Amino acid sequence: MLALPCPHCGTRDEAEFQFGGEPAVRPPSSVSDTVWADYLYMRRNEKGAHRELWCHAGGCGQWFVLTRDTATHAVLP
Amino acid sequence: MRLAVGGRIDRGKMLRFTWNGRALSGFAGDTIASALLANDVKIVARSFKYHRPRGLFAAWVDEPNAVVDVRWNGQHDPNARATLVALRDGMVITGVNGFPSVDRDVAASLDLLHRFLPAGFYYKSFMAPSWHYYEPRIRAMAGLGRVGEATETRSFETRNARSDVLVIGAGPAGLAAAKAARATGASVLLVDDRAALGGSLLWDTATIDDVPAHAWATAAIAGVRVLSRTTVFGAYDQGSFALLEDRAEAPEGWAAPRLWVVRAKRVIFATGAIERPLVFPDNDRPGIMAASAVLDYLRQYGVLAGRQVIVATNNDSAYGVAEALRDAGAAVEIADARDDAPAIPGIKVRSATVPLGTGGRGGLAWVDLGPRDGSRRDRVSADLLAVSGGWSPAVHLFSQAGGALQWDADLAAFVPMQAGQLVAGSVTGAADLATCLAQGHAAGLAATDAGDLVGPRTAAASPVRPILPLWGLDLPGTRQWVDYQNDVTAKDVRLAASEGYRSVEHLKRYTTLGMATDQGKTSNVNGLAILADATGQAISEVGTTKFRPPFTPVPLAAIAGLRHGALFAPLRHLPVHDDHLALGAEMRDYGGWARPACYRGIGETTEAAIKREAANARFRVGLFDGSSLGKIEVYGPDAAAFLNLMYYNEVANLRPGRLRYCLLLRETGVVFDDGVVGRLAADRYLLSPSSSHTAGVLAMLELWHQTEYPTMQVAFHDVTAAWATFAISGPKSRDVVAGLGSGADLSDQALPHMAMTENFIGSVPCRIARVSFTGERSYEVSVPSGYAQSLWQHLLDLGAAAGIMPYGIESLSVLRAEKGYILIGTDTDGMTLPVDLGLEGPLRAKKIDFVGKRSLLTPDATRADRRQLVGLLPADPETVPVPGSHAVLREGGASRSLGWITTACRSPVLQRSVALGMIESGRARMGEEISLFHLGKLSRARIVAPCFYDPAGEKLHG
Amino acid sequence: MSRTPFRTRYSAASLLRQGLGGHTGWGEAWRAPSPKPRYDFVIIGGGGHGLATAYYLAKLHGANRVAVLEKGWIGGGNTGRNTTIVRSNYFFPQSAALYDHALQLYEGLSQDLNYNIMLSQRGVVTVAHSNHDMELMARSVNAMLINGIEVELLDADGVHREVKIANRDPDARYPIHGGFVQRRGGIARHDAVAWGYARAADALGVDIIQNCEVTGFRFDGSRVVGVETSLGPIAAGRVGMAVAGHSGVLAAKAGFKLPIQSYALQAMVTEPVKPLLDTVILSSSTGIYCSQSDKGEMVFGAGLDLYPSYAQRGNLPVGQTIVAALLEMFPRFRTLKLLRQWAGIVDVCWDYSPLIGPSPVDGLFLNCGWGTGGFKAIPAGGWLLAHILATGRHHPISAPFDLDRFTTGRLIDEAAGAGIAH
User: Rounded to whole angstroms, how far apart are CA atoms C101 and B856?
Assistant: First the structure.
């Protein structure tokens, strides 16, 4: 039962949010299969501080990046 | 037996109940357990493994034995904890896990074999010839209660609460904490699992702040929000807790318990402590009870659990119990394991004495007392043995919330390490009122970071003599129970250790210690202490097993709450839902919407209805409710450029007023959705995602806009629910639409196929799109959904002369299959790329990096032998192949799947069966005859182009 | 295969003998050795997959210098936290080959390990809730039959014959339209699988070292030649890792990323009740799966928690959804109580299929990405990783599950195969 800080609306219950994965920089389509696979599939998947995308889907619709401790679920500054 | 006076029961209100068919009675305020004890019921259950007789041991959540079957007022609890369920008039209570009854259980003979059934015996046997040979017989022994036919019909609701401070436990420490926190101005929620707050204060003779303790308790909660009869059963993330409020006392009767979810800024754990049994030979006999439980039954319920009592203890806490029993008229003797026990008036006290054995049929008759080494034994008659092996702080919730524990050797207990967490009272090991009050007060202030306030005053405690830890007696050949319900003995623990199961978690799993319905509340610490002894480790090294929710078993129905029946994944309704029903529609779930499958006439089969509806839409005119189809409006100067990056197809060159069928891909290249994109103006688009994908498409657009293209000026608005859309399809559709008088020019020049126009019907805005999913001339008319019903009725009236009929999804599926129009999620799946559907143009033509483009260039995406969309004509035109049939190829003696049929139907137009499928290298196989496989049967079909009707599209255009 | 030299063979006769002698002669099921400075093979992770890898290395490939390093207690990860279901009803031929290899090994495992893993082939019934579900199920069933996996398609009555207590209400939100059954599927005692492999591996000389955490890798140039541990460095000829949810953590230590995200997968049990559910049941729509243990508890679970996690606990909202789904399937369970809720950390690949084979780093080999399906695959996962470690080459069964499929795009997407659109 996370409580997450929407930059627009303030802290809300996790039920209002949608998880969006790790943020990644999109390469152009000219890159190799390997580079494309790295962007598409490879993940840091950190235990501990984890940068991740969330959307306040049940609220204002804002996507934002959050750092969360995946071991404790605490939202980190 | 019930005493003539005392207890917090209502003696004016007698409650009748039956126990194993015997008519008994108790009083309002009794639990099932106290009522059974008042009636001198000795055996309340049978142990799980050896079917040993079991009596009440505890009085509350820690009770390991008394699981009973309870029926009352249509309700049934097959595994009720007798100590936790309030007695009600007319309850039918039965023992479980005993046949024919728990008093005389034929399975008790298993106990004779105990020496061959040690911990984990089943891992070492039952292998020859196979476990399957033994399992049915062992399985028949499983379980405690029996689930009945009747289901739980009460409504379970869930509530949420917030507070600055949550105080768990309303004993002296919890009350002092709540009072202090409230005094600083914080909002405080105080939760306790019993009906009356105060814990021991309810009968304590002490004074606090110069008033009687119980009076102080009542005053302490002024301004505090209180939930009594409520168990905090789980600690979850970020200060959130799950609670179960037992509402058995509610005026409406045995009301369903209520789940609460509470978020608090700070939590104070004042959760108390649980008394441990002593581990000694034959310590599982009915009539052996926790000393604190004996006192609880006496004080709360006026029940004296025995008249000839031995109190066996290794610590000071049981002395008060002995005195209370003496005062209640029992003959009491104390066996203190420690040396130099003090003299107590009216009680014989033995020092350095422990119970060495017990005896009696159906209950307790005698106890052997003597020194720990068993060198002497003195047989003493007794009908009750009250034991205290020390106290285990109830650290369950504290630990669940992330708190760390440490072993306190002086207290012989795991206690909370207090870094960052607030704990108070006997959960810290505190044993006297003054300390508990002081700790609670300090925690209450710390929770709000407030300054000094004066705490509650009470008499200082007398000094406590240290506990003498006792973890079983070294007496070979004896059976000393650790876990009562699961029949785990000290010998089992030692066997596990000797076999290498030395981790406390291995011990638990190998012996099943602490895995019974009490989750080891009384047994865990004794078990791991014995493990420590057996392995030569310190108890601190052994540690505890992980504490998991729930603290006490929680009814599944309460956890699910209102997510039940119609409220479990509710379906969305169309604006004219009731009109469909009035027309005889059979409503089904399509992508989370209740939509008409077909409209069956009286006596008509579904098949006949589908055939009729499809033919009518093809040859005359049909009316279809497309309101669930998504409608997302896209605005802004960059709308065209942005959508061109999103869509597989080119959409920037679309002229205003024109429509185009487009695919939306995932970044993996997989087809996510299809739909018609319309351009309303240079800076306005209207998207029509499929009904079940609208939310997903909107989320995707927002994600890409906000994260990848934030500088583009574009905005999105989901107006699906704002507009109702009806499709009028068939050769006579134009006449019907013309009748609306929208003023739109419906000529083929002004409104050709794949064009749209915005007009008014009277003063009501409407959109008319000429787009078809049937292959016939079709118009989709949209109006604000408030006008849905009048438009629907108006269209039916306008079309009456032309023979208009509504048609449902199933007929539409036939119509679209004849045309080879795909349905996302039916003809496509999570592997389908646009090239597989024969849509290769945009990949070649579009130069920009639209979503999913790069993934269409990988080695796998460009393979020639991918599965491709084809049409299939079964060799037998009368047989419709089952969707999901595979096309197979015999290769080297084995069959290989070439793909599968995704859609199949009997075509009313072609008067034969047709199918669509995804077949390996399908486009290269045109004209080839292949084998279809379904459940072992083979048939033949020819691969053809995926369009069976009007391939030139003449019907669409004219 | 040679007989494994157990200190004490388990049997009814030995139980009788030990019973008369006070159970003093069983000896340790496995030793508690100190690590040696060097092994030919070091397996990181003392769960089912790691222990099975060590066992098959010793048993089938004659390896005699093998260590399993476990940071906690063996079998304490997902092996000891799952809902114990075994089945091989998979869509793609590659998956069928993999999981049926596992099931076949399971079928002989109690005898092979001389440890009763209580494989109970009570049948796994998967339920369909709509016509569309039934079409997709036909597609799956036909694929399985072509793959040589014996399954039967059932109509609604057929499901109710197999599962007598399932919801019969035709107006239920998810009414039962039909389903299919794999009769060879069922459940096994999860702890026993870990302990059985551990005991047998130990008897063959494998060092099982508990409370030994791998903190890093030792390299010679770009090749892994050993590991750093909480008990000191250990040199290794080849290193295999089978650490499930923590694969990403170890991969980072070795300097690469994986196509994996770790999620909490919840499991729950009710209080024990007398037997009334004799098969394993799964729902295609709600994702719920449930079986009744031989102790009488209903053991159940469903979907993943909604965000990555290494906290081995389930969150409440998903737990509520899971319980609600269970009650829709079995309305009679509304009188039951939840006894325990927990979670394991599962390593989910993008295509829900495992990764088996070489890692991007020389000398280090992978067995991970099993997601929610690791337990049923333990014997095959260990058998294949042992083959790869011993030979340095893929086995034909493992080759399709190589990491390179994410570059070529040749994913083995079982969810997509079952017809689930992404």
Answer: 34
At the fourth CATH level, which superfamily is domain C34-115+189-259+351-417?
Answer: FAD/NAD(P)-binding domain (3.50.50.60)
Phi, psi (deg, nearest 5) at residue B247: -110, 30
Distance of alpha carbon C272 from alpha carbon C336, whole angstroms: 9
Other CB atoms within 10 Å distance of the CB of residue B681: 11
The sign of the torsion formed by the CA atoms of B211, B217, B221, B222 equals negative
Kindly tell me the burial class for residue C24, based on how many C-beta atoms sit within 10 Å of its own C-beta (0-12, 13-18, 19 or more): exposed
Question: To 5 degrees, how large is the angle CA C267–CA C272–CA C278?
Answer: 80
At residue C259, the 3 state secondary structure works out as: coil
Name the residue among A3, A27, A75 with its Cβ closest to that of B263: A3
Taking the Cβ of residue B10 and every Cβ of chain A, the question of whether any pair is shorter than 8 Å is answered with no
Q: Which residues in chain A are contacts of B707 at CB distance < 8 A? A: 23, 53, 63
Q: What are phi and psi of B669, to 5 degrees?
A: 90, -15
B124 touches chain C (CB under 8 A): yes
CATH for C124-183+261-349, options being 3.30.450.40, 3.30.9.10, 3.30.465.10, 3.90.640.10: 3.30.9.10
What percentage of residues in chain C have a pLDDT greater than 70?
99
Question: Could you give the CA distance from residue A53 to residue B123 in angstroms, rounded to a whole number?
Answer: 47
Interface chains of chain C (3 or more CB pairs under 8 Å): A, B
Q: Would you call B88 helix, strand, or coil by DSSP? A: coil
The 10s digit of each residue's pLDDT in C382-414 is 999 999 999 999 999 999 999 999 999 999 998
| Joined tokens for residue C318 | 């998903």
pLDDT at A67 over 50: yes
Report CB contact under 8 Å: A70, C257.
Answer: no
H or E stretch covering C414: helix C414-417
Q: B632: which 2 tokens?
A: 């997302």
Q: State the pLDDT at residue B341.
A: 93
Q: Please identify which residue in the block is written with the tokens 């998207």.
A: B687
- Specify the CATH architecture of the domain B1-152: Roll (3.10)
Per-residue pLDDT tens over the stretch C223-262: 999 999 999 999 999 999 999 999 999 999 999 999 999 9
Task: Check CB contact under 8 Å for B127 and C76.
Answer: no
Residues B919, B832: Cα–Cα separation, whole Å:
12
Which residues of chain A neighbour B237 with C-beta distances below 8 Å? 1-3, 73
- Cβ–Cβ under 8 Å, residues A21 and B256: no
Do B260 and B227 form a contact (C-beta atoms < 8 A)?
yes
How wide is the angle at C-alpha B501 spanned by C-alphas B499 and B507, nearest 5°?
125
Res B247: pLDDT: 86
Q: CB of C322 within 8 A of CB of C305?
A: no
Task: Judge if pTM exceeds 0.90.
Answer: yes
- Which residues in chain B show pLDDT less than 50? none
CB within 8 Å: B238 and A3? yes
Residues of B in contact with A40 (CB under 8 A): 667-668, 855
Q: Does domain B159-274+393-448 have CATH number 3.40.640.10?
A: no
3-state secondary structure of B893: coil
Residue C111 contacts A, CB cutoff 8 Å: no
Q: How far is B900 from chain C (nearest CA, A)?
A: 7
A40–B855 C-beta distance less than 8 A = yes
Task: Provide the residue ranges of all domains of chain B, joining segments of one domain with +.
Answer: 1-152, 159-274+393-448, 277-389, 864-958
> Tens digits of per-residue pLDDT, C172-208?
999 999 999 999 999 999 999 999 999 999 999 999 9
Contacting B residues, span 374-433, partner chain A, CB-CB under 8 Å: 402
Residue-level pLDDT at B565: 87
Task: Single out the residue of C73, C373, C74 nearest to residue C196, CA to CA.
Answer: C74
**H/E run at residue B843:** helix B841-845
